[in-house]
TrEMBL record:
It is a multi-pass membrane protein. Residues 250-624 form the TonB-dependent receptor-like beta-barrel domain. GO terms for biological process: siderophore transmembrane transport. Residues 1-23 form the signal peptide. GO terms for molecular function: siderophore uptake transmembrane transporter activity. It comes from the Bacteria. Belongs to the TonB-dependent receptor family. This is TonB-dependent receptor.
Length: 664
């Protein structure tokens, strides 16, 4: 048996096996002859099957062949009143931390890791800010083609920060054909969202232009217990304000093929947002607002070398402008500027049974804060090597990888070992074991934020994680079931620092373990059903007896999501149910102060009633049962909401605008 070129670098990691997971599917539909006049669609059903395409070179499946990966096709939700966080929240072990309605901050917790331990990218451009958290409210679904989610140790393939996983948001691809589309949504809380897009040939390549915008007043009524410590206290009616937001932006993409089979891609994306900040239930604000602007630039070149090699080079730049106004003297953080840019070189070669990949990356980050003239910057540099060893006619794959990284003055080592076995007849198993790190953020290390002090003596957080699962699939069914476990060490948390300040410190550890199940059924192309369930247990290992052994806050133990879509394009209906158990809101574990369990039911219907141009009308009701819940600060979240969407698409014969797509 031939040894892997990198096997020696991962001795000591636990090895088990899990099968390859299915990725999203798409296949072009055959073009129809163009009629001279618009035609109304008769109620007939014609379904076109789909093939599984080869994974793109820069896709999550190619970057981590044995990883626990889910791919969500955002285009299948075209016409639905959904945001990016809602779509991601349908995946197993992903919990959305939502602070309000449209435009309010939304972040992810993956497999128990905090939001600053989950990496988020936009076409490979990192979106985590100076505090280490990525705000998904700034990425509308209109920009996206698919979402690639890696659960588990992501440090080896994606770098520092990936304790719980990584999410890559892939934007829409340009087309050589002249295509245009538009969409407008109006609904509850005076919410309006819209976008227009056009794509076509330009300068020997393909270009895409997309403009988007929206606003929401966000005010709604709710009932609150003003004295929760007293039993049978009457509820009072309140109206939530300070929940309004507005924003917009643009996406520009250009793609061109080169001689020798190469390709170059260029991206420019800008977003602007203005939103009210409500504060917390205990300390609400009356005038605090946040203005945020982001500019992202990226370019990537790639080409094959012979029959067995390929190489790529990419560069990126991102600049965030963040202004907070209306705060209390001594608390207001003022204007903040965050800049990050870097380059990455990657090569891959197939050598017999081995497929060896090497990545060299370097970047620079800096942050400035107006209050006190605070500033900080550092360099990042890393070398990553991965080997994909195929044995027994490619039924067994061993994938060792390792990344050596320097982040500021921290030196980090992130090894990983993955394996997969194809057992035949649709059965398979796969497994991974690895180590990841998160260097402290600029805000935790150097920048004072009102009453929050920095601590330059912080150590990097570390995660040791393993996962394993079995799967089975055929032409109709796909089932994946498995478990995971992780130990988080040197966790960073803010503690009281006399007299009335808080400061971050490293604490001992936390344990996380659980199980995941994902299911998809497609008995007909016009009938799809998906379901995901996650059972997650957490345990605080901090030595203080008040917290030791308690569950971590904001980590629900159970989460189940089920979705059903029935019908062809001319008329279809859908429903989605999310069930999430109660969450603790402090480390002491007082159940009476926890966020209660929730069951959210959403329903909708769509009809593409006219062709050439395609005209689609959709109706959605979110939180049909009007379940009232609160965010992680205690502020109430919106109740029942209804939305109507009108979509227009020219040249609908291409699959790029298809409303029939595979679910995640």
């Amino acid at each position: 048996m031939r040894r892997s070129l990198l096997a020696r670098t991962v001795v000591g990691l636990v090895l088990s096996f899990q099968g390859l997971a299915r990725a999203g599917q798409e296949t072009p539909a055959p073009e129809a002859s163009e009629p001279p006049l618009p035609e109304f669609v008769l109620p007939t059903v014609e379904v076109i099957g789909k093939e599984v395409p080869e994974a793109p070179v820069d896709s999550a499946r190619r970057r981590d062949p044995t990883g626990a990966i889910t791919v969500i096709d955002a285009r299948e939700r075209a016409g639905e009143a959904r945001d990016t966080a809602e779509l991601l929240g349908g995946s197993a072990s992903l919990v959305v931390q939502d602070s309000g309605g449209y435009g309010q901050s939304k972040s992810l917790v993956v497999r128990g890791a905090s939001s600053n331990g989950v990496l988020v990218f936009l076409d490979g451009i990192p979106l985590n800010g100076a505090g280490g958290v990525a705000d998904l409210s700034l990425i509308p679904v209109a920009l996206l083609e698919r979402m690639e989610i890696l659960r588990g140790a992501a440090g080896a393939r994606y770098g520092a920060g990936g304790l719980g996983g990584a999410v890559n948001l892939v934007t829409r691809a340009p087309s050589s054909r002249l295509l245009s589309s538009g969409e407008v949504t109006y609904g509850s809380f005076d919410t309006v969202m819209a976008h227009v897009a056009a794509s076509g040939a330009l300068l020997g390549g393909q270009a895409l232009v997309l403009l988007h915008g929206g606003r929401s007043q966000g005010d709604f009524s709710y009932r609150v217990d003003e004295l929760p410590a007293l039993d049978d206290n009457p509820l009072t009616q309140e109206v939530r304000t300070r929940n309004d937001a507005r924003g917009g932006g643009a996406l520009l993409k250009y793609r061109r093929g080169l001689d020798g089979g190469g390709r170059v891609d260029v991206l420019a994306e800008v977003s602007l947002e203005d939103r009210a900040l409500a504060g917390t239930v205990q300390n609400p604000t009356v005038s605090r607002r946040q203005d945020q602007t982001r500019l992202s630039l990226g370019a990537r070149w790639a080409r094959p070398f012979g029959d067995t090699g390929e190489g790529s080079a990419r560069g990126f730049f991102r600049r965030d402008w963040l202004d907070v106004t209306g705060g209390t003297t001594g608390v207001d953080s003022g204007a903040q500027r965050y800049t990050v840019g870097g380059v990455e070189l990657e090569g891959r070669a197939v050598l017999g049974r081995n497929a060896l990949a090497v990545t060299l990356a370097g970047s620079s980050e800096s942050v400035t804060q107006a209050v006190g003239g605070q500033a900080a910057s550092w360099w990042r540099a890393s070398v990553m090597a991965m080997d994909e060893l195929s044995l027994f006619s490619e039924r067994l794959k061993l994938v060792p990888s390792v990344r050596v990284e320097r982040v500021g003055h921290y030196s980090l080592l992130s090894p990983k070992l993955g394996a997969s076995v194809d057992l035949g007849h649709g059965f398979g198993v796969r497994a991974n074991a690895g180590q990841s790190h998160r260097a402290p953020s600029f805000l935790e290390l150097y920048i004072r934020q009102g009453l929050l002090l920095p601590n330059p003596e912080l150590k990097p957080e570390r995660a040791l994680s393993v996962d394993a699962a079995a799967l089975w699939h055929d032409d109709i069914w796909s089932v994946t079931a498995g478990g995971f476990a992780a130990v988080y060490e040197n966790l960073i948390a803010y503690e009281l620092y006399p007299p009335n300040l808080a400061r971050p410190y490293n604490f001992a550890a936390a344990r996380v373990w659980g199980a995941e199940v994902e299911l998809e059924a497609r008995p007909r192309a016009w009938f799809t059903a998906t379901s995901s369930y996650a059972w997650t247990r957490t345990q605080n290992r901090y030595g203080d007896p008040r917290y030791f052994g308690k569950e971590l806050p904001y980590r629900p133990r159970h989460k189940w999501v089920g979705r059903l879509r029935v019908g062809p394009d001319w008329l279809n209906g859908r429903t989605e149910v999310l069930v999430q158990s109660a969450q603790l809101i402090n480390r002491v574990g007082e159940a009476r102060l926890s966020l209660p369990s929730r069951t959210w039911v959403s329903v909708g219907a769509s009809s593409t009633f006219l062709h050439r141009p395609d005209l689609t009308v959709s109706f959605d009701v979110k939180n049909l049962l009007d379940v009232r819940t609160a965010d992680y600060t205690g502020m109430p979240l919106p109740g029942r909401a209804a939305y109507v969407t009108l979509s227009v698409a020219l040249d609908p014969s291409t699959s790029e605008d298809s409303h029939v797509a595979s679910p995640p």
